[in-house]
Amino acid sequence: MLLDGVDLKYDYPIPVGGRAEPGVPDVIPFAVQYYQTDASVTAGKANTIATIDLEYQ
Predict the structure, then answer these.
(1) Where is coiled-coil annotated (predicted)?
(2) What gap in Å lies between CA 36 and CA 53, rounded to an integer?
(3) From CA 44, how far away is CA 31, in angstroms rounded?
C-alpha cells in the first residue's frame, strides 16, 4: 500500500487533520499496487483485500 506514492509504514500514525478548509473534506492519498515476487509473470487472477482502520483523536 502506498501513501503519496511511498511505501506505507504499518501501525504508524499518519497525521491528516488541519489541512482542509472548513466544509472541504480531507483526502488521504492511498494507492495499492502489486509487486513482482517471481522471475516471470503469468496471466491469472490477482485478488486481494485491504482493511484500513481509522482512529480519530
Answers:
(1) none
(2) 26
(3) 22
